[in-house]
Design a protein that fits this description.
Layout lengths: L2 E7 L4 E7 L4 E7 L4 H4 L1 H19 L6 E8 L5 H12 L4 E8 H10 L4 E6 L3 E6 L5 E5 L11 H17 L7 H9 L7 H7 L4 H5 L2 H9 L3 H25 L6 E6 L10 H11 L3 E4 L5 H12 L6 H14 L9
Helix pairs in contact: 4-12, 5-10, 9-10, 10-11
């Protein structure tokens, strides 16, 4: 029996799955964050190794080396990233073949079951990534919270904070967001937001967590909140369109997988977002990811050892997801 490992490494946790060559998922291991741009190479590799050791223990597999380990890691996108992280991974001596990709690559593989398409992720950050039928790749957005991430939860949260300060000064329109943020942060007055943001060092994740407040205000008809969400939809659509144009797939039947907390706004985001994309690529079909990114890594690993991802493999993977729990598996043809 041959085994492959699939690793999804992000800014919060690292998840590792193990599967046999029949498509049976045998266990899941969890490690800490593994974005080496944020925590450094050594800590990132330690998190990956921790997740691998845990899944090996859970699956009770004794094997000197696995056939393939496929990793999709946040923060890996440039040639130097692959060189630095790849060298460190080889030192673990865990597999005969190492496939190192960025996290959006394995997310797309899980979303479309290794088929061509585009993935848009809008969580704390935002990025779009796609592959066409010829295997050409394209990315847009995802430059981080200083250089980009437009349309992300962080972007929405930051605009909410700025909107209430503009309203306070009289530079902007009055908004329900003012009372919502005062209540959310338990402030005596809006002036106390300065300490909460700067002295208490409000994190990117905490700022992104303000998105539901914007959605709530928009549902009550707040024009400022509605505009913030419309601008987010525009940015996310622009990212997808940029990928589609770079791939030259405007006239093709194309799947665009949508994922991330921002899209939970549903009717406040999706109609405008989809409409903007379809203006450029009218044959686009929007889908939810069929499988989570770690399973995408498993699919890529299986393909590397010559296993075709057919209906039988998909059934075993899907059944395994149900047995293991907390792993997204939902085959939609």
């Amino acid at each position: 029996m041959r085994y492959v490992l699939g690793v999804d490494g992000g800014g919060t946790i690292t998840k590792c799955l193990i599967a046999d060559d029949k498509g049976n998922l045998l266990g899941q291991g969890i490690g800490g964050p593994s974005n080496y741009q944020v925590i450094g190479v050594r800590k990132a590799i330690d998190a990956v190794e921790m997740s691998i050791k845990e899944v090996i223990r859970i699956a009770s597999i004794r094997k000197a080396k696995f056939e393939v380990i496929c990793l999709g890691l946040a923060g890996v996108g440039r040639s130097i990233d692959y060189e630095v992280v790849g060298k460190a991974l080889k030192g673990l001596n865990l597999a005969q073949k190492i496939i190192l990709q960025h996290d959006a690559f394995i997310a797309l593989a899980g979303a479309t079951i290794c088929r061509s398409g585009v993935l848009i992720i809008a969580g704390t950050g935002a990025t779009a990534f796609g592959i066409n039928e010829e295997g050409r790749r394209a990315r847009a957005n995802g430059w981080g919270f200083i250089l980009g991430d437009e349309g992300s939860g962080y972007d929405i949260g930051q605009k909410a904070l700025r909107a209430v300060t503009r309203a306070y000064d009289g530079r902007g329109e009055a908004t329900l967001l003012t009372s919502r943020l005062i209540q959310y942060f338990k402030l005596k007055s809006l002036l106390d937001i300065v300490q909460r943001v700067y002295r208490d060092k409000l994190s990117r994740r905490e700022i992104a967590a303000l998105t539901p407040l914007v959605v709530e205000a928009a549902k009550k008809g707040d024009r400022v909140a509605i505009l913030i969400l419309k601008e987010a939809a525009e940015e996310l659509a622009t990212s997808v369109v940029a990928v589609i144009k770079n791939l030259k797939t405007e006239k093709e039947k194309l799947e665009v997988a949508i994922t991330g907390g921002v899209f939970k706004a549903r009717e406040l985001i999706l109609p405008y977002f989809k409409g903007r994309v379809k203006e450029v690529a009218p044959k686009t079909r929007f889908i939810e990811p069929r499988f989570e990114p770690a399973i995408g890594a498993i699919f890529l690993g299986l393909r590397e050892i010559g296993v075709e991802i057919d209906d039988e493999i998909l059934k075993r993977v899907n059944d395994s997801c149900a047995r293991l729990g907390e792993i997204k598996g939902n085959v939609k043809k």
